[in-house]
Amino acid sequence: MSLVGDSPGTPTAGRRPAQAGNAVVGYFAGIRDVVVLEMKQRLRSRGWYIMLGIWFALIALVSWLTWASWNASQQFMREMPDTMMGEPSGPGSMIFEVVLAFVLLFGLLVAPALSANAVNGDRAGGTLAILQITLLTPGQILWGKFFAAWLVALAFLVTSTPFLVFGVMQGGMTPGHVLVSLLMLAVELAVVCGIGVGISALAGRPLFSIVVTYLTVAGLVVGTLIAFGLGTQLTQGTVLANNAQYPYLERQFPVPNTNGQPDHTCVGPLEEHVVYRTERVAWVLAMNPYVVVADAIPYPDRNVQGMHHHYPGMIESISQSSRYALAGPEHSYPCANGVPHPQYLGQTTPLWPLGLGLQLMLTGLLMWLGWRSLRTPAHRLARGTRIA
Amino acid sequence: MPGSDPAPGARAEGAAAPYDAVPYDAVPGGAARGVTAQRVSRRFGSVQAVEYMDFHAPAGKVTALIGPNGAGKTTLLLMLASLLRPDAGTIRIDGFDPVREHAAVRRKVGWMPDTLGVWDSLSAREILTQMARFYRLPAEGRGQRVSRLLHAVRLDALADQPARALSRGQQQRLSLARALIHDPSVLLLDEPASGLDPGSRVELRNLLRQLAASGKAVVVSSHVLSELDEIADGAVFVNQGRTVKQQTLEEAAQEGRRYSVTALDGAALSARLHEFGLVFRAEGGRRPSVSLVLMDDDDAASLLKRLVESGVGVVSFAPTTGALEETYMTLDAER
User: Fold this and answer.
1) DSSP A264
2) In the predicted model, is pLDDT for residue A345 greater than 80?
3) Domain ABC transporter: where (chain B) (predicted)?
4) Which of A12, A359, B114, B226 makes the best surface tag, with the fewest CB within 10 Å?
């Protein structure tokens, strides 16, 4: 078994002239190789398929329950013809919304588990240094880990697609809704995977990084709501406004449709009214994954279309209330600056680009810090860690 | 974007010696083939792991890195392998600096860590194939290269089993094959023999000798000294982060070796040795024996002959320790 003179040949890198294009191809080839390694390592565990099966069953259950409860409520409405509520747009939108919220929730729960031990798990297993000793760069290792985690997370998303499509087929939604929402869900999963991989490169122990990643996700989902609520208290300010007069005896709910016209007139002198200037803290709310997804999904402008009693869905409500916060009292307080505003805000300034931008900044920062910690020869090591 | 390492491939282009058709001598720094470290220091927090260590491992030789646990062996190997940055001092791998030219160094260095890192869901063949990709070896011939290495470390029968099914010794051999995948000119092996059965140790020894004979610089760290005697051409002794001694095996042998002699009649043996005017000491043990230092093999042969001729019933006559162990123990005593 002679190994002498057993040359492995000329590596492609040595043969080709140094060209920028080839360097880019080589860089991505390295990432692909890491992804292949990670996928082989991950997909061969049986637990993964069991998780996928549980996921599928759970979403099927949720979809069925939603559909059944909608049917039950329809029956109830038929028995009471003088219902106050307008005609909902069909079970489609409701199933769609519930499944979407559920898929996002589960995605946010699963993605940290898939990503947050990607780097330090390898460090603990002694395989990270084996990657680092090869010609792979820290960036290729990190991107490879990220894409592998993301691809697995996307598999969960793909599993839930049939139920989103089912929601669309029940009416009231378009395929565009499914596409946009799947896209936004995929982006949110990428954000969480990026956070997880970044933290796993920074933290010494897998357990610690998984917990920190879950806390970060919880911070995005719940923390942003709390921070927005508390932060709003600090934004008390004033706005000049006069008094609104409604043609109705009392304000009605649901809001009567006025075809985009304000439902009130403004009379009297301008006075200072105490308001919360929510636009100053709307960026906190914007970082919420639910806000980003809900705000990105299109819905018709209710002010333009002459609709009947309108029953806004969950997605639309989240989107409009967060846009309401972004608009602030200048654009939402009745008779601010003596200008009547329509009650239903046709707020068209979307919040999700801001929120997604902030999320990507956070992810980018963590990935960059993670990349720094993967550089070799290593300068600083975390306390108590061995490089191999 | 993370990852734009300063031109990973570009700089090493002309210098990637074993792969290009460039002969070794034409490589810049070709005169300094092998591994050299001068006054290398590395500190972890308050612990000075390596302090002004000197180390030289010439090409074509097996160099043992010997020292007690915690002496800084692994730290030194990590610095040589371009994974750890030295605080001070210079390192050259075939003339390349691991800190500034790590891409070039990584093409030349095969590293076998003291921890068994295996991707346990992958088979041995897949692990080696994947490593070949990471070293950007050309696709053609990759399969044969992997098969040959699997054969060399006697894993061909288990090549398609998941790595978790391999025993510790088998994983150790896989780790060695992994270090060899890109035909490195420098091999850094951290405790390669630990966990190997005697048969595998002999094979490892033959393999390492063969690799050294083909012109590679082989560095083996260990504290199992008896087996290093058979493998190593030279040794570097380190302790408490410092190089204590650097010597070739011939030099070690010239310092004399302690032999242990037992005879049927211990008193007769002692009397005879007195007669010959030799300094010896009585040793405890299951059988009464004496030990004495002999300078070389000729001395040993002539003493044995004289003892036998003088009628002493010699039962055993053997070196108590290996040549390296002898040095190691004297160093230990100095400490």
Assistant:
1) S
2) no
3) 35-265
4) B226
